[in-house]
Structures are given as C-alpha cells and as structure tokens.
Amino acid sequence: MAFQGSTDNQQTSFPELVGRNAQEAALYITAQGLTPVFVRPDQPVTLDYRTDRVRIVTDPSGNHVIQAPTVG
Fold this sequence. Notes:
Layout lengths: L21 H10 L3 E5 L13 E5 L12 E2 L1
Parallel strand pairs: 1-2
Antiparallel strand pairs: 2-3
C-alpha cells in the first residue's frame, strides 16, 4: 500500500480502492479506524482538514469509487 503524506504511519491515500464498489470501500476505510464520507464529483465540500475523515468520491450513481479516497 502506498503511504502519501503519512503521519504516525497512517495511510492518507487509498488508490487501491479506485473502481471498487463504494460500500466495500467504506467498509475498508472503517476497518482502518477512519470515517468514510461519500461525495459526488463536483459536490462542494468543507475546507476543514480532519485526520479521521476519508472522502470517497463516487460516480454520479454513487456505486463506484472514481478517485483515490484521501484523508482530509
């Protein structure tokens, strides 16, 4: 697994989830002790940075991950 910008050896990017089912990705993120948050392409998001949140960008139908989820 790739570690990008990690702190305390926590993975901050999850490129291995691109193309996977969104619900499976959420379970994977939860198993890492992080909170998944689903967003659609071009959906506005808050600019605050949280080390416990992972945004999962899905296709318009909300079924598949289309971008590497990242902590933030």
